[in-house]
Design goal:
This protein has 271 residues and is mostly helical. It has helices spanning 2-12, 41-58, 64-81, 89-96, 109-112, 115-120, 124-135, 142-159, 164-174, 182-185, 199-207, 212-221, 226-241, 245-252, 257-269. Helix 3 packs across helix 4 and helix 3 (64-81) crosses helix 7. It starts with a helix and ends with a helix.
Length: 271
């Protein structure tokens, strides 16, 4: 899960200032750049979903409807605590709603926040069920459900030690055909917040990588919704390669104590 957070922070300064290159300084801070890195709604909601899963498990698990209810409460709690993290308009309204309902979204917000399911799930079927439970409360469009599940499944399989080839076979067979390279799409790829227009690209960035950092650089290099593409890519890359200690340590400096505690509590619970 830390991989998704690193990806979010690393990509944050390029969301509105795309850099179509892998050559950039990683995790630039406030004193190093006019457009410094920062955590966004991707990290906040990733940790909100992790918080919901922990509370659900602490209560004995139970039905997946119970997990959905926990997801609503945790996402609203975290979202209201960090109201300026960069949420989309529909989700911002959902956060304030006293009786929040799903709004048929196919946006990539479903995929950027779901990586905790890939770490907490004990079987592939459980990962899929958990992913659907935490996603359908907002993104109940089939593409929103699919984007989240593809990310959670790839994270789980990477954590389970599957090879790159095995991971790609599952993604192509069950979710997205891919059939492109980053070099082919980089010149023309544009900002796209849909799952169908960004999750395949994020996964391809992982499949073309040689290390965790290289995966994040791949994700940023195509432009578009850089923080979210890098968060989705980072979720899988972090599970596959692990996150180097120096990168993790630098990324943690961008989080406040409340977010750090949520991250560490989850990692302690699902180490």
């Amino acid at each position: 899960m830390i991989g998704a957070i690193v990806g979010d922070i690393a990509g944050s300064r390029f969301e509105w200032h795309n850099r179509k290159s892998k050559g950039f300084t990683f995790l630039k801070g406030e004193r190093e750049s006019r457009h410094p890195c920062h955590f966004t709604d991707d990290s906040v909601m990733t940790l909100a979903v992790a918080d919901a899963i922990m509370k659900w498990r602490e209560a004995g698990g139970g039905t997946y409807d119970a997990l959905s209810a926990e997801a609503v409460m945790s996402m609203q709690e975290f979202g209201r605590r960090y109201p300026h993290a960069g949420y989309g308009g529909a989700f911002r309204r959902w956060l304030r709603d006293v009786s929040p309902q799903p709004y048929n979204s196919w946006g990539n917000g479903s995929a950027m926040r779901v990586s905790a399911c890939g770490w907490a799930g004990r079987t592939l079927d459980e990962v899929k069920a958990m992913s659907r439970a935490v996603t359908k409360v907002t993104h109940n469009h089939p593409e929103g459900i699919k984007g989240a599940e593809a990310t959670a499944v790839a994270t789980f399989l990477a954590r389970a030690g599957k090879t790159m080839e095995e991971l790609k076979e599952v993604v192509v067979r069950d979710y997205y055909p891919l059939g492109f390279t980053l070099d082919e799409i980089r010149p023309t790829y544009e900002f796209d917040v849909s799952c169908q227009g960004s999750v395949p690209q994020a996964l391809e960035a992982f499949f073309e990588s040689t290390s965790f950092e290289d995966a994040i650089r791949n994700a940023v290099s195509i432009g578009g919704d850089s923080d979210t593409i890098a968060a989705i890519c980072g979720a899988v890359a972090g599970a596959y390669y692990g996150v180097p200690d120096d990168i993790r340590a630098k990324a943690e400096t961008f989080l406040d104590e409340r977010l750090l505690k949520a991250l560490r509590d989850f990692e302690r619970t699902f180490a």
